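User: Show me a protein chain along with its predicted structure.
Assistant: Here is one chain, sequence first, then structure tokens.
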Amino acid sequence: MKKRAILAAVVLAAAGITYGMDFGFSVDSDSTFQRMDESEFIQKNTGLVWVAADLGETWEFHGALSGTLSSDDAEPVFYADLRQLSLKGLFETPAAGVSLVSVEAGRFREAEFSGRVLAHTLDGLRLELGLPDSTGRLTVGYTGLINKYYGSVMMSGADAADDADSDIILGPARLVGTLSWEFIELFSRNSLNLAAVLQKDLRSEDTVDTVYAGAGLNGPLGGGAYYDLYGWYGGGDIASFLLGGGLRWYRPDLRHAALGLSFLYAGGDDAGTSIYDGDNKGFLPVAGSAYGLAFAPTASNLAAAELSFSMKPWSREKDSVLESLQTALTATLFFKPVDGPFSEGQVDGSAGSGYLGMEIGGALNYRPFSDLGLGLSLGCFIPARDMFVDDYQDPWLTGKLYLSFSF
């Protein structure tokens, strides 16, 4: 093993001398205070070593190794994994109107256009085709070799059981495929996205297989305003739908002010017992984002609307040390559209559908130097008392202090 490590170091060094190599190191410190039924403080420190090398004019190599020290009782004290390890080739092909073809193999991050259904690391192959007015992408990957503490795939009772089992380190064994096409500025500077996502559960029993078809439209409305709309139909073992979108208004001349209004509606099932029981007919993403800091439910049997505002108060003071400081405020409303299961166990299953509560949040983001970033996020969720079980009916608080240093 030692000889192999030495050989690998020699090969990398030779590649760096011959083709040019870039590398770096970053440290992220994440301090979180939570108060729900009781108070808890969690400290995570993550180090990331990355390397990138051009292997001639066509190929490039990317690698990143991460290790985390955690005080979270639900996680090991230390865990690590390869965050990226891929070889990518870029080929210019002017024939037949194709501007660029790329192929990437290994471990990489994949996300569909909305980020609501899939945004996750995969081990696999990705092909991209660039045309003058559109871009296509085909990806096939596997999730079962990724450290589960860096992952977020949760689609069945077996997934939930494995997630709670400290003896299991790797994520769920699932095969994921995506096919997408973006038509850039199809009409009046509006772009159209079409995508399909398929995931196959590779377990031998109690499997959950799903397929998704989605479309999105986005573009400018004039006067610094922009919109986006998207929708997903979920089929396979779970048939449901997800709708979302938003309006954003930017005023760079007013201290980089930005005002946003967005919404999300993910269908539910009024007859299921759990969104992970295999019989649930509500929408269930593979690994996507939703809303919230103190209260952050899965996009299943969920309706949410968020109003946000951000600005850089000292952006006009070019010589000010606070020039890069950004402030943000959010207010998010949460609803449970139908009776039936919900992702968060604190919600009373017998309470039915209705208004769940509101989260008020604030954030400060500061980057005084390109290699130093600071962030503070606060969230207060005010639950609708009759929708939550005892001990979770009072306001929830979450605060996060973030420090990032790289060189």
